[in-house]
Specification:
Radius of gyration: 24 Å
Strand content: under 5%
Largest sheet: none
Helix content: 55-70%
Order of helices and strands: HHHH
Number of helices: 4
Distance between the termini: 59 Å
Structural class: mainly alpha
Length: 136
């Protein structure tokens, strides 16, 4: 997710004011909301009370806003030629956005597909005797 946020900020800073339309708003919103999502994620991880529920909701909202704004940036890129903008860059913005959105998809979905390691130790009660298995 940090890589996706960095690519959004790269797009924001690389776009100059060469057009009458302000094309920098969508990548700014995307990069900012993804960066803010780290704050809410850390609150969710380190808190132990009801703050966790609020933090996970705010994390979800900021990640969704960042993802939608990254998609909006990708959609705006298709219109750059129609706006007669003088945009010159060493990178193709379409690929930057596709890579950014791909990183978002991977960073959001992979943790939900991984199994969680649980350190549950089974300690028998003192009252319960463990019976040995007897093989014939």
């Amino acid at each position: 997710m940090a890589g996706a946020s960095a690519l959004q900020f790269y797009t924001f800073f690389d776009l100059k004011d060469t057009c009458t339309a302000n094309l920098r708003i969508a990548p700014l919103i995307s990069g900012s909301s993804l960066a803010v999502s780290f704050f809410f994620n850390s609150i969710w991880i380190y808190s132990k009370n009801t703050t966790r529920k609020v933090a996970i909701v705010l994390w979800t909202v900021t990640v969704v806003i960042g993802t939608v704004a990254a998609g909006a940036t990708l959609g705006q890129i298709q219109l750059y030629s129609e706006l007669d903008c003088q945009i010159t860059s060493s990178l193709d913005y379409s690929w930057v956005q596709v890579i950014s959105i791909g990183l978002l998809i991977v960073s959001i979905s992979v943790p939900h597909g991984m199994s969680k390691k649980r350190n549950l130790k089974v300690v028998p009660k003192e009252e319960t005797k463990i019976k040995r298995l007897r093989f014939l």
